Amino acid sequence: MAIAITLSEYLERSGMEYEVVRHPVSQYSMETAELAHIPGDRVAKTVLLEDERGFVAAVLPSTCHVQLSVLRRDTGRPLRFAREEELSELFKDCEVGAIPPLAPIYGGMATYVDDSLLQEADVYFEAGDHRELIHMRTDAFMKLMAGAERGHFSRHL
């Protein structure tokens, strides 16, 4: 599998500069950072949450955990971690566990970006499979994430 078609088309329409970074197959974002020789604080991972109102994407550095209680408080929603089997229906052109942070292009879901991710000059994120990352400047990434809420809801490992 290569870069997800939905993501590829969106990036092309955006006109933002990016590069595709290939790496050995990995299953976890911290492992991806290690195999791609990238600092883990620069690799954005997407954690999908849900409640009765639908899905929510939380985007944070691979070196952090989501503080679910903080997101629940900040959103006023009883969020829980989404089940992986539900995600394959939403992200049809992505492998399970390789969801890009641009979740709104997959159904307009609410997205939250952790401020700690924005401390770096550039960011890397899943391209829809376990072998490729998208690399771009953080300012360009945030233009793509313009509709996302920002906050601090992560805890460093």
Automatic annotation (TrEMBL):
Top-level taxon of origin: Bacteria
SUPFAM superfamilies: YbaK/ProRS associated domain
Pfam families associated with the record: tRNA_edit (PF04073)
Domain YbaK/aminoacyl-tRNA synthetase-associated: 30-144
Protein name: Deacylase
Organism: Crenobacter cavernae
Taxonomic lineage from the root: Bacteria, Pseudomonadati, Pseudomonadota, Betaproteobacteria, Neisseriales
